[in-house]
Amino acid sequence: MIRPRPALLCLLVPLLLAGCAPQGGDAARVAKLEKEVAELRAHVEHERTEAAGKPAAADEAAGPELGAQMLELQIRHARLWQAGAARNWILAQFQLAELRETVSGIVETNGDHAALQPQRLADVMPAMLDPALGAMQAAVDGHDGAAFDAAYDQLSQACTGCHAAADHGFLVIQRPITPVLDNLRAEPTPAP
Ligand code: HEC
User: Fold this and answer.
1) Staple partner for 88: which of 116, 119, 188, 191, CB 3.0–4.6 Å?
2) pLDDT recorded at residue 47
3) How many distinct structural domains can be found in the chain?
4) Does ligand 1 come within 6 angstroms of the Cβ of 103?
């Protein structure tokens, strides 16, 4: 085994250091680039989580809130009453169609809502409402006031029935006493 003499070491060390110098420069550059990449990654990650936290993006992913959809359904239900109570059949026809559209929208966008699990809202909602909606359609088509009143109570009971099934039995739906908004005339327009 060759034991390098101190004199040789004195010669070798500066040579080695000189030899390492360019490599050391590369290493420093790589380290700098690595640091920049890490910073960019952190920045991108931050932007992504911030975007995910924005309400619009979150809502899009989760779908519309059932409570808000029910609020719309409540208004449609109330408006249908005003039209039918005034025996304004063309307006009742319109309000019933709007109410049905709202129901379809809920089924489409919230069909798997947690409130009715393990049952599917997409199955329960039509099953509970369809008989009443059918009776209501017949009453409106037939311009039958007494049938309208009966179908309306049947519909309200179906609403309440589902609330009970979803542990929300305290949400009792009834005939409205006063209109929600009174700037939409319920009375039929007299013929000119
Ligand atoms: C498929 C079952 C189902 C049917 C049918 C149903 N609802 Fe609901 N409704 C719910 C559930 C579940 C909630 C509670 C939502 C929540 O947790 O925000 C609710 C909540 C409501 C609320 C309270 C909304 C709020 O946030 O203030 C109203 C009002 C309402 N429903 C009206 C109606 C009316 C009117 C009908 C009938 C035309 C109806 N619902 C039919 C399941 C149903």
Assistant:
1) 188
2) 61
3) 2
4) no
How far is the CA of 60 from the CAs of 45, 52, 55, 66, in angstroms? Answer: 20, 10, 8, 14
For ligand 1, the distance from its centroid to the CA atom of residue 168, given in whole angstroms, is 8
User: In the 3-class helix/strand/coil scheme, how is 18-29 assigned residue by residue?
Assistant: HHHHHHHHHHHH
First-last CA distance in the chain: 122
Report the phi/psi class of residue 153: left, alpha or beta, with left for phi > 0 and alpha for psi in -120 to 50.
Answer: alpha
Q: What is the pLDDT of residues 129-187, one digit of tens each?
A: 999 999 999 999 999 999 999 999 999 999 999 999 999 999 999 999 999 899 999 99
The amino acid sitting at 42 is: A
Which comes out higher in pLDDT, residue 58 or 166? 166
pLDDT tens string 86-98: 999 999 999 999 9
In a domain, 178, yes or no: no
Answer yes or no: is the C-beta of 78 below 6 A from any ligand 1 atom: no
For the Cβ of 68 lying below 6 angstroms from any atom of ligand 1, the answer is: no
Residues 137 and 75 in one domain: yes
In a shared domain, residues 103 and 137? yes
**How close is the Cα of 180 to the center of ligand 1, in Å?**
17
Q: Could you tell me if residue 13 is inside a domain? A: no
Q: From the CB of 121, is ligand 1 less than 6 Å away?
A: yes
Enclosing domain of residue 28: 19-61
